[in-house]
Amino acid sequence: MKRLLTLDLRDYTDDMPVFEKHTVRAIIMREGKISMQLSGIGEYKIPGGGVEGDESHTVALLREVREETGLIVIPASIEEIGEILELRQDVFHKGTKYVCHSYFYFCDVEEETVETQMTASELAKGFHPVWETPEVICRVNDAIQTQPWQKRDTELIRMMLDGRVKRRE
């Protein structure tokens, strides 16, 4: 998959142990708005999460979107966007280098929805599914910037706004 961006905080050393993670994230557009998770403090997050075990990206994407938004992805609609690589010290394990490969995909969803199945952590942070315009997402996340993933998600959406990533409606 094409690398779109590398976000490197350079707050680690090369002798640190490495924790590497692979995630999938869905850009689902409807009437000019993107399906997002909105937290209790107002931050927007693109739906998606970690690839588990030997899951394919498709299976992980279907599962994560369903769990976090209640939306049902149409597998035939999935289209690669690109990867954002994050390099930084692990937020949860100081002294560990965190390497995260986030793979972004456009996809369409069924009209039918199901109940979300968010993690305890997501629920504790007040996350819930919403639809929002790319402009609002960027403006709000730029103002908050409390977590590293806000920059990742905001940069991908900014790339859509300025044409570096072709938008799909």
What is the element layout, followed by pairings?
Elements: E1 3-8, E2 18-27, E3 29-30, E4 33-38, E5 44-45, E6 48-50, H1 57-69, E7 71-73, E8 79-89, E9 97-106, E10 109-113, H2 120-124, E11 128-132, H3 134-144, H4 148-161
Helix pairs in contact: 3-4
Describe the overall structure.
- Helices cover 25% and strands 37% of the residues.
- By secondary structure, the chain is of the alpha+beta class.
- It has a single domain, classed as Nucleoside Triphosphate Pyrophosphohydrolase.
- The strands form three sheets. Strands 1-8-9-2-6 form a five-stranded mixed sheet.
- The radius of gyration is 15 Å and the shape is globular.
- The model has no long low-confidence stretch (mean pLDDT 95).
What would the keywords be for this entry?
alpha+beta; 25% helix; 169 residues; 4-stranded antiparallel sheet; globular; Nucleoside Triphosphate Pyrophosphohydrolase; 5-stranded mixed sheet
Quick structural overview:
With 169 residues, this protein is α+β, with helices and mostly antiparallel strands. 25% of the residues lie in helices and 37% in strands. It contains four helices and eleven strands.
